[in-house]
């Protein structure tokens, strides 16, 4: 017997679409309904395993929307191909949980949800940066624990970040948005590590410097690091925004953590396995002045032994994109990816996906990550 409760919308729909967890808002349901989809939503709080997803796909299915907490492996894509699935979307911008090669071999387009969660996730990185720098978690525990006996000149002294050096690992959409917030808001000097130079970010800082100079403020710098090691050695705060793949797994290991300043701050809102979490626990224990702000963990929902007990670590449960606007927008984009493919729409050729978020969405498919492999590009 199926252990999960399912809910169906538009049961008479022509296309059968499986959604492995309920999504926020109603608009995604309207979009799929307008595309004549029968929508079957699993009402579980837990990630489905491969076998449960295959069972849900069954003998006939046209589309699916899945979660980053699920592993969309080759067995699933084979089952999807056999069932006639022609569209899948991850409910996320990242897709490290998807076997993209298997999806492409099965001829199934894989959608993601870029653009809508950029500022929201960058805001969480900012929040964690200052929570770590100003010891917010520790201070709240102190207060709630009844230990506050009045303001004291030396109570819970933190780190001032204004004008200091900010290291960005992965200067893509979210990393750049975070950099802009920290430059404009806090006059930080940026050094970034990325596969290629980011002229957009550099020219943003150059333009902003014209304003600073007009205000008699000294300009801030922004340049690409010669190496990750240089960035780690020089930055006062390092924020991780890279994708997770085999080249970035444990990118920050014990050796590289050891290169960072003893009182530096490390923020991770990308993917947990980019940081060797056991090594981080050890590093934080040995350097009480070092601080970390983490939204993601190596083996979610678990944490490395000892991490939750560390006073110099601030932790939140993978809520980087968790504003209602962003999460409803992600649902809209995922629905548009699936509905667009099923309706035979072309790929959206612009980088701005905001037109999908209001009114009637464009008759296009917002974002397919294996479009090139599937020769969907003109
Ligand atoms: O990749 C993403 O979109 C996030 O991690 C999920 O919120």
From TrEMBL:
Belongs to the D-isomer specific 2-hydroxyacid dehydrogenase family. It comes from Desulfosarcina alkanivorans. The lineage of its organism: Bacteria, Pseudomonadati, Thermodesulfobacteriota, Desulfobacteria, Desulfobacterales. Residues 126-320 form the D-isomer specific 2-hydroxyacid dehydrogenase NAD-binding domain. This is D-glycerate dehydrogenase. It comes from the Bacteria. Residues 17-344 form the D-isomer specific 2-hydroxyacid dehydrogenase catalytic domain. Keywords: Oxidoreductase. GO terms for molecular function: glyoxylate reductase (NADPH) activity; hydroxypyruvate reductase (NADH) activity; NAD binding. It holds the Pfam family 2-Hacid_dh_C. PROSITE patterns: D_2_HYDROXYACID_DH_1 (PS00065), D_2_HYDROXYACID_DH_3 (PS00671). PANTHER family: 2-HYDROXYACID DEHYDROGENASE-RELATED (PTHR10996), GLYOXYLATE REDUCTASE 1 (PTHR10996:SF257). GO terms for cellular component: cytosol.
């Amino acid at each position: 017997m199926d252990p999960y409760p399912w809910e169906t919308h538009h049961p008479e729909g022509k296309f059968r679409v499986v959604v492995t967890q309920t999504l926020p808002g109603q608009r995604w349901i309207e979009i799929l309904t307008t595309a004549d989809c029968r929508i079957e939503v699993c009402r579980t709080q837990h990630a489905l395993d491969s076998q449960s997803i295959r069972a849900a796909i069954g003998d006939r299915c046209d589309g699916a929307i899945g979660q980053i907490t699920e592993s969309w492996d080759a067995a699933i894509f084979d089952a999807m191909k056999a069932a006639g699935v022609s569209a899948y979307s991850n409910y996320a911008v990242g897709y490290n949980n998807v076997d993209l090669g298997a999806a492409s071999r099965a001829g199934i387009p894989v959608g993601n949800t870029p653009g809508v969660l950029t500022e929201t996730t960058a805001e969480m990185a900012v929040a964690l940066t200052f929570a770590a720098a100003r010891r917010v978690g520790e201070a709240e525990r102190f207060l709630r624990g009844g230990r506050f006996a009045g303001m004291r000149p030396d109570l819970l002294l933190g780190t001032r970040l204004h004008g200091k050096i900010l290291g960005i690992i992965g200067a893509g959409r979210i990393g750049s948005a975070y950099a802009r917030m920290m430059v404009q808001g806090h006059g930080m000097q940026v050094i970034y590590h990325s596969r290629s130079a980011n002229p957009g970010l550099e020219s943003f800082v150059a333009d902003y410097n014209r304003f600073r100079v007009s205000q008699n403020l000294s300009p801030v710098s922004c340049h690409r690091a010669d190496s990750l090691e240089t960035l780690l050695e020089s930055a006062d705060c390092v924020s991780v925004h890279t994708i997770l793949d085999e080249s970035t797994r444990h990118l920050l290991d014990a050796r590289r953590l050891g290169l960072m300043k003893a009182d530096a701050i490390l923020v991770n809102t990308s993917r947990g396995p980019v940081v060797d979490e056991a090594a981080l626990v050890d590093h934080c224990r040995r350097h009480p002045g070092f601080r970390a702000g983490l939204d993601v963990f190596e083996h979610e929902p678990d944490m490395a032994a000892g991490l939750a007990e560390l006073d110099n670590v601030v932790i939140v449960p993978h809520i980087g994109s968790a504003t209602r606007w962003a999460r409803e927008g992600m649902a809209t984009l995922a629905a548009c990816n699936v509905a667009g493919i099923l309706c035979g729409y072309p790929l959206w050729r612009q980088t701005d996906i905001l037109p999908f978020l209001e009114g009637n969405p464009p008759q296009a498919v917002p974002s397919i990550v294996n479009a090139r492999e599937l020769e969907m590009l003109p």
